[in-house]
Amino acid sequence: xxxxxxxxxxxxxxxxxxxxxxxxxxxxxxxxxxxxxxxxxxxxxxxxxxxxxxxxxxxxxxxxxxxxxxxxxxxxxxxxxxxxxxxxxxxxxxxxxxxxxxxxxxxxxxxxxxxxxxxxxxxxxxxxxxxxxxxxxxxxxxxxxxxxxxxxxxxxxxxxxxxxxxxxxxxxxxxxxxxxxxxxxxxxxxxxxxxxxxxxxxxxxxxxxxxxxxxxxxxx
Amino acid sequence: xxxxxxxxxxxxxxxxxxxxxxxxxxxxxxxxxxxxxxxxxxxxxxxxxxxxxxxxxxxxxxxxxxxxxxxxxxxxxxxxxxxxxxxxxxxxxxxxxxxxxxxxxxxxxxxxxxxxxxxxxxxxxxxxxxxxxxxxxxxxxxxxxxxxxxxxxxxxxxxxxxxxxxxxxxxxxxxxxxxxxxxxxxxxxxxxxxxxxxxxxxxxxxxxxxxxxxxxxxxxxxxxxxxxxxxxxxxxxxxxxxxxxxxxxxxxxxxxxxxxxxxxxxxxxxxxxxxxxxxxxxxxxxxxxxxxxxxxxxxxxxxxxxxxxxxxxxxxxxxxxxxxxxxxxxxxxxxxxxxxxxxxxxxxxxxxxxxxxxxxxxxxxxxxxxxxxxxxxxxxxxxxxxxxxxxxxxxxxxxxxxxxxxxxxxxxxxxxxxxxxxxxxxxxxxxxxxxxxxxxxxxxxxxxxxxxxxxxxxxxxxxxxxxxxxxxxxxxxxxxxxxxxxxxxxxxxxxxxxxxxxxxxxxxxxxxxxxxxxxxxxxxxxxxxxxxxxxxxxxxxxxxxxxxxxxxxxxxxxxxxxxxxxxxxxxxxxxxxxxxxxxxxxxxxxxxxxxxxxxxxxxxxxxxxxxxxxxxxxxxxxxxxxxxxxxxxxxxxxxxxxxxxxxxxxxxxxxxxxxxxxxxxxxxxxxxxxxxxxxxxxxxxxxxxxxxxxxxxxxxxxxxxxxxxxxxxxxxxxxxxxxxxxxxxxxxxxxxxxxxxxxxxxxxxxxxxxxxxxxxxxxxxxxxxxxxxxxxxxxxxxxxxxxxxxxxxxxxxxxxxxx
Lengths: 220, 803
Fold this sequence. Notes:
The structure holds two protein chains of two kinds. Chain A is built from five helices and 16 strands. By secondary structure, chain A is an alpha/beta fold. Chain B folds into five domains: about 5-205, P-loop containing nucleotide triphosphate hydrolases (Rossmann fold), CATH 3.40.50; about 215-370, P-loop containing nucleotide triphosphate hydrolases (Rossmann fold), CATH 3.40.50; about 385-470; about 480-530, no CATH class; about 585-695 and about 705-785, no CATH class. Chain B is globular, with a radius of gyration of 27 Å. Residues about 700 of chain B have low confidence and may be disordered.
């Protein structure tokens, strides 16, 4: 499968090329920053009417990851919706897709800065979620350990034989794991940005997403 | 008015000038709805354009906007203001002449809208912006004439299409508006006339005496041009000698990077410290203005420049034009040469400096064409719909509009004369709701229909955003360059974002004639320090590139076919002979392909001579087929004469790659996923208003909030492939970047006469391609292989290699 195995907090985990995190022992799939409804929110605020297919595309990819892994628990690590009104405006077919995906599975919505309130969809709504040695929350906290978070949309850029390649990336050190953004209409923050270099310990690694995930020392 | 007023003829007489016949013609034709003047530079063209205005204002100088002058360059507007002020004062006209460009202060702009001058000098973008205000009707109520300068240049670009839509709007506000176009020599004056006039008004064409033929030669140098490269560093001594022998020399380059490098080298060799300046579009505005001012004062002996000085700014006593690098296009060469010697009826003097040996051949071919008055050019086709979308939004910003009236108005613009109502409605729908197959935004549409049937902005605040994003100039994303200081150092100019991304701290590059060291990126500003001691890494920001015309390409192939080359310098003749010995020379009815290894990669060089754009398309099509057959292409670069493809594996049988039916039938699918289409999409989506360059609330740390336009393209391709913007992208690409017609003509011509030559190293003819900028990456299997290699290397370096 298109995945890269690694160990974090003593657990065997897999970084999927799609940007999702897979924990086989718990049959747990975690995705961050879906930003569903982003195009709708931009249009609502008087911005350009971007192609309104982003939510459908994000959910199609999520659905494929769930099918492939057979995940029993899904954690959406915050900023699942671009704002709380975007949820209300989600199309019928997207809502149906979500309901179908939730059927027979444990589904956890972690709240994010874009979607800080309760969500009127199935699933549990939490500010953070603990499973074994790991804690899942949206924004990394100082001094945390075994923490899985999102929020920063990390991406990595490297040069290979003159080619500059940019990919969304997982960031990993001995205390925390930061997931890339999963949503279709999401940009990224370079790992060389001060915010990320200060957050991640020396010796942090980056796992580049794409057809074949690769792990490298985090470019600073 | 039948006679030029005496105060004006007296003024001419006092100056010792006589009125040129074409100036008189322009005056006699002043009442016509549209007139096109074709005259060489220095033929009193500007005066011919303004003469009727000055005459009318001499008779009646009551306040109010009388004439709008539009030029493609801000600098030209400022220049004309200075040059018009003198005569107006000397004739004794109490009139106000002001310019209005992106550089005009906000206070001045505000005042101009309330109390406009008699003559307003502006650019297409500033004029379009003025029409977007609700009070446009009041400001333009009295306009009598509009003068479009350098219309030959505007007629080739979207800026011109935008201008013609703005003039259509202006004409609705003041129906008696008369139009005048001022043009350099063009191959098809009728086409420019149709472009200018309100459809279907007639447009009379006045041809001024073209003057004597220019004196053009190739610069003779002691040093030989190099095998490759675009810097022409070999010619520095000879060029410096020419500068000394002339009063003022303009030194034109085809790209900004080349201008920088040449200026740097010229400065190093400038032992006598002659005052020489540099001028190009990436420099900071203050730097450009300093150079312009020095030039006007006559302080400079030479200016190294690019297309930013292509148009007719009057720099005073330019007595020599030097063109560095092949001119690509005979018409442009003739127009550039027209810049030398502004005295009418004296021959212009120009020197061509080929940058490398291939360009020697191209320069010789261009000289022969210029002597034969054989100008080139391709018809441009219907006005692009992305510009139309922008103008629908501009109309909405000005206030509610009636769709029927707007359609009628827009089809009076020459480039949009053949626009169908269905096409217009699709653009309107795009502006209103996004025009998607999925009707998602009916609640949030940008434009709403009112009960009276007229259209208006749903949110009036959107008008500000529309104005902020107005314009059709598509700079590749650029970042500002500043000297690193405590509180924001001196601005030096701009570099492309992709170039900035390739820099690591410590790298050096040239900008504004100085070597700087890259220190880092801070808040999207490239911070640098001065560094005089190092050899610079090349600055790769691009200037405008033109495809060599079909006609010039044919002339070059005819030169190649000769058995010997008496008209070429010995070194170039020797070089062609070397190519003939080591490989072959390309022929018109065959296709030469070379294959060779270099620097750890395999290369394939295809000499199609189909022009840059068609060669680019060939690169796209070939790399796609190579990807499918597992040949792991990494990327390609195209010039006017060849496409160079590099990858991880060698091509041994090119024939299957060139099957014509496969090339044609696969074009649509092949095009869909490639970088050129995405680049084209980004440009059109930005013009049409789907992507906003300026949003007004740019959060400094919010980089993760923005995402690449490639994602929008991919999404539309997947879910809405027939969307208006996808149609526009295909259309633009087919006629501009794709140029499939010229590629087909090439394939027809060669039939199956393909010659593959395997070499153990780069051939003389292929070498120049390695220095081309504008390389197109192929994101396929090869990238994954590279990434795997590089990840393994990084892990090993870090001591983390556990495999």
